[in-house]
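Hello Y.,

Per our agreement to keep a running log of every chain we model this quarter, I'm adding this entry. I've kept the format consistent with earlier entries: sequence first, then predicted structure.
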Amino acid sequence: MTVGMIGLGAMGHSIAQNILSHGHSMVLYDLRQEAVKDLLGPQASAASSPQELAQKVDTVLVIVNTFAQCRDVVEALLETMDRGVIVNMSTIAMDEAKVLGELAGRKGVDMMDCPVSGGTAGAKAGTLTVMAAGEDRLFQSCRPLFASFASNIVHVGQEIGQGQAVKAINQLLVGVHMCATAEAFTLARKCGLDLQLVYDTIRASAGSSRIFENRGQFLIDRDFSTRSTLQIQLKDTDIACRTANQVGAPAWLCTTARELFKLSVAKFPPTDDSIEVVRLYEELCGLADQD
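Predicted structure for the entry above:
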């Protein structure tokens, strides 16, 4: 299998490194040439365009930020691609994924809808979760490739869009838990509690969550190094709200989280880490000047 990859940002770059380390040959493309340079070698070459990449590979992984970027990439690939499979690993809305699937289908190109979760740390460690939707034959053919960068590979459904639906549910929970963690630590500070004691206690109690465990220590240490950004969290939480609206499901908590991230993006640098939603809470209760 010759693998093409488009989108070599924080996650895509690490995914490509893991794929190469498992012996796959790759053709790479990113608008930023510097994102590709350190990956090039005997197994990896660079394409000058998506169209050129499509002529050299039989499987293309796409991981970009927005639906508009996804559509541009897929349309460019389909100008020269008349076989193989496009695997969209970007996080977009369920109905947007279906649009991409229809575009590919009209050209006779297969598509899989495979958003991933696990963040930059999971991408580096090769422990991502893949939420794969598409035909059984495609899933089975791509599974060995997925195994090079993911430890949890789940075939969530046969239909394009079902992968994005599962990712939307995941991001609903991530957004709500992120805001809940910020709210909990703000309450702990206002109560004058030892934050480390609170963290260690809750981690072993029913109120814990993976987000609380992952971000809680960073809040205690005031470590706001970027792991996932406010603007990406806003995008993903908005997709979750949109998905709920499309199918007629309530999304009260998700909507609240979205508004908190929207305020955060308006007030703070959008590329700050998503846990910096805590700064909204701190400003509201007079803690912001105590750092």
